[in-house]
Amino acid sequence: MNIGEWLPFSVLVPLIAAPVCALMPGRTGPWLLAFLGALTSLLIVAIALPVLWQGELSYPFGNWPPPIGIEYRIDAANGLVALLVAAVATFVLPWARIINNFEVPERQGIFYALFLLAFAGLMGITLTGDAFNVFVFLEISSLSTYALIAHGWDRRALLASFRYLIMGTVGATFVLIGIGFLYMMTGTLNMADLAERLPEVRDTTAVRAALAFIIVGLGLKLALFPLHLWLPNAYAYAPNFITVFLAATATKVALYVMLRFIFTIFGHDYSFFALPLTAVLLALAIAGMFAGSWVAMFQHNLKRMLAYSSVAQVGYMVLGIALATSAGLAAGLLHLFNHALMKGALFMALGTVFWRVGSVRIDDLSGIGREMPWTMTAFALAGLSLIGVPLTAGFVSKWYLIIAAMEAGQPWLVALIVITSLMAIYYIWRVVEAAWFTPAREARTPVSEAPLSLLVPLYVVVAANFWFGIDTRLSVGGAEAAARALLGGSP
Amino acid sequence: MAWLGHFNYWVVVILMMIGFYAVIARGNMVKKIMGLNLFQTSVFIMFISAGKIIGGSTPVLREGITVYSNPLPHVLILTAIVVGVATTAVGLALAVRILEAYGTIEEDELVDPPDQPADESHPGMPAGKGDTAA
Amino acid sequence: MRTNGILRVIARFLIPLIMLFGLYIQFHGEYSPGGGFQAGVVFAAAWILFALIYGLDAALEVIPERAQFVLACLGVLLYCFVGLLGVVLGGRFLDFYPLLDSPHAAQQTGIVAVEFGVGVTVATCAMLFFTFFARRKREIDAAETGEDD
Fold first, then answer.
1. What is the dihedral sign for C-alpha A126, A127, A128, A133?
2. Contact yes or no for B58 and C33 at CB 8 A
3. Closest Cβ opposite residue C32 in set B60, B81, B96
4. Among candidates C31, C37, C122 on the partner chain, residue whose Cβ is nearest the Cβ of B60
5. Band (A269; pLDDT cuts 50, 70, 90)
6. What's the confidence (pLDDT) of residue A362?
7. Based on the number of CB atoms within 10 Å of its own CB, is A421 exposed (0-12), middle (13-18) or buried (19 or more)?
8. Residue environment code for C24-48, b if the CB has 16+ CB neighbours within 10 A, otherwise e
């Protein structure tokens, strides 16, 4: 059977598994179901990906032909992001079982049901070809994310979740306003159809306002500086499993949707001329890179430190996109992919430490490198990738970013990328120094190394950082195919 | 009097700004959620206004009627209303939990210095597996 | 509020009517304005009115909390089941044409079944919202007195 017939099931399987999961008692059943759901999605997308590199697939729901019905339209760009989301979910879940039994001991059925909903929502945003459907899935994933963040053991998780809810809802409503304007002007919600009909009405204020609303709304979801204020606390106080999953996927999916709107629907020749998008995105990206790295250097809570580093890394991705060239777009997408790997590994290492120590404050972790050598080595290796040392995934994406900046005739950007990478060395080194070169605090009970069931999944993700630093066929090839698909789709 | 023809949209703008102001300026979390609701509702009115056709009837096939209102915005907004209901429920649930954990839902009365060690803010905080496993 | 005669009489009169109206919206939704969400909310409103007048405990005897939760999940699953039926019978997800021979009847059957699932889920979810918020204070008080012991 044609793989296109099966692609929507990468969204439907977790979506259907969620209510079943909510009804399941105990701990093992819900976890197993969530894992199988994620694995199914991953297999479907992985099988479909080579086909997607050749061309796009379409699946009309209910056999209503688009543009009347809702259609899933999947090309190399969605394929790459969907593969990333499904792979992160599949590889983090084996690690998460022990962590969740410790952090979320009760009512795990509902917890995993919420996770499946968030996962299905992110997959849905990625695969759908309908503008309004994007909003619906955005809210499905966001609402379940708010509830998941509130599961954190610290009471500040509630506040973080509430603030994220307020900002996230405002952002999603902005997107809704933008989609409303587009619908009023064109009378369609199908993305391909929108792209066809927009050129007729492109010089109206309504379409310009729609673009502005959508960019600001998605900027909130994407944690684009200065709209990132919800992110540090949400990541810091969420349960560790959720932090890993969100850090590796949520902002990436929001970025992908923004790309879809900018490049496919509005067309990049329109987006970058109707509004001063290059200047705005470039300025915000650079400000985010510096502000994020700067604040990260002085954080005591390591999860907050990595969260601020995420703000900086989002800056790199947006920087590539703001160049508005094919190479820049590919570099941005490549960093999107690689950043998920490195932040996933870093947060997993921290989560493992938290599981033993019960804290992620840097003062409490002094000397931890001698007690949990394997975990902290994984942290340091993933940190190398974050810095961008050769042979790691981080190096590859920064290399492509630098090349794209040179090609675009903006060599001064290279200096900025290097400076922020130096700042990354500083904040990763602080952790290494505390872990190995500082005597352990006497107040802390000595801990032992984490078991293999945590270390193996952690090292799988760390190994991926090195794999994609050497064999770049999937990451670079995927990103370039995605960039071609996004640019080719524009009228 | 052309501006009167866009009466709905003026209402939308005014409601949206009232709601947005409440979200930003109010410290009370319930008031924030009310502002958020107002903000969302104004967008709903915008969509519904766009679907209205003067002289159009309900979009159900009947004899003798040729002009129908556009049903699609209604369907979309029905979905958005569901989302709004869910958002309100989650928001209020969080407000209840915050009230229980902090004793207040006023933003400026919530004090949790960011650098405060986690242990002191939460008496029931897990101590880690270290003490049992080591 | 059980002691207030006026409230009780009016509620007794209104609750069945509201429920009936909810069912009407549910089952005429496919060819007149209405549908699962509206019907579910109206139906839940009747139950909430009952809970306001006669107390939450009496209302939970009618539909226990666990039943609400299970029904909410089953409603979604019914929706998915009908959707998957289209795939199993050789169509696409939410494709109703393969369900029956006559295309008109197939569409009608499909939409009624799907909307029934939506209605059940929305009604029970609205009841769950109410139950959770209404019960919370009592739960907390019980937990605090329990800790003091």
1. negative
2. yes
3. B60
4. C31
5. confident
6. 85
7. buried
8. ebbeebbeeebbbbbbbbbbbbbbb
Output the pLDDT for position C1. 64
Give the 3-state DSSP-derived string for A196-251, with helices as H, strands as E and coil as C: HHHHHHCCCHHHHHHHHHHHHHHHHHHCCCCCCCCHHHHHHHCCHHHHHHHHHHHH
Taking the Cβ of residue C129 and every Cβ of chain B, the question of whether any pair is shorter than 8 Å is answered with: yes
Mean pLDDT in residue range B56-75 = 78
Binned at pLDDT 50, 70 and 90, residue A1 comes out as low
Q: Which chain C residues are Cβ-neighbours of A23 within 8 angstroms? A: 69-70, 73
Q: What is the mean pLDDT of chain A?
A: 88
Neighbouring chains of C at 3+ CB pairs under 8 Å are A, B
Rg (CA), chain A: 21
Rounded Cα distance, A485 and A56, in Å? 9
* pTM listed for this prediction: 0.91
What's the confidence (pLDDT) of residue A490? 41
User: What's the mean pLDDT in B55-78?
Assistant: 80
Cα–Cα distance for residue pair A115/A110, rounded to 1 Å: 9
Q: pLDDT (tens digit, 9 = 90+) per residue, A159-188?
A: 999 999 999 999 999 999 999 999 988 888
Domain boundaries, chain B: 27-54+65-108
Contact B95 A170 (CB under 8 A): no
What residues does each domain of chain C span?
A: 5-148
How would you classify the pairing of strands A57-60 and A71-74?
antiparallel
Q: Which residues of chain B are within 8 Å of residue C140 when distances are taken between CB atoms?
A: 100
The chain B residue lying nearest C144, using CA atoms, is: B100
Mean pLDDT of the region A245-250: 91
pLDDT at A346 over 90: yes
Which residues from chain A sit within 8 angstroms of residue C83, using beta carbons? 12
Inter-chain CB proximity B129 and A102 less than 8 Å: yes
Q: Which of residues 32-71 of A touch C (CB under 8 A)?
A: 59-63
* Integer Cα distance of B106 and B26 in angstroms: 9
Pick C93's closest partner by Cβ from A12, A19, A22. Answer: A12
Mutation target to probe the A interface, by most A beta carbons within 10 A, among B41, B48, B72, B83 is B83
Nearest to A258 by CA among A244, A246, A268: A268
Q: Cis peptide leading into A67, omega within 30 of 0? A: yes
Whether the pLDDT of residue C148 is over 70: the answer is no
Is residue C140 within 8 angstroms of chain B, CB to CB?
Answer: yes
Q: B1 pLDDT band (50/70/90 cuts)? A: low
Q: Which of residues 1-60 of B touch C (CB under 8 A)?
A: 58, 60
Domain segments of chain A as ranges = 276-491
pLDDT of residue C139: 80
Query: Would you give the DSSP letter of residue B59?
Result: S
Residue A2 sits at the chain C interface (C-beta within 8 Å): no
Predicted ipTM of the assembly: 0.89
Would an 8 Å CB–CB cutoff place C141 in contact with chain B?
Answer: no
B chain contacts of residue A172, beta-carbon cutoff 8 Å = 83
